[in-house]
Amino acid sequence: MVKNKIGFNIGFALLAFPIGLALFREFDFQNLSFRKPALGMLYLITFIVLIFFMLKKKSVSPTQEK
Fold first, then answer.
1. Distance of CA 37 to CAs 2, 40, 65, Å?
2. Taking the alpha carbons of 11, 17, 23, 26 in that order, is the dihedral positive or negative?
3. pTM (2 decimals)?
4. How far does the chain reach from its first CA to its final CA, in angstroms?
């Protein structure tokens, strides 16, 4: 029986932190838009992908489980 465990990958977390900060700086809260829309969308897509890989479920076989 294979169980799924939510894993936390510190490498992707270290990459997601500065991308998240750049995304935060790029967003204009007064106008609710990005200062540079293309760059903002690139940061957003990259940040979402990094969060997905950071929290990706790991498949564990019964022999590895303890």
1. 43, 5, 46
2. negative
3. 0.73
4. 13
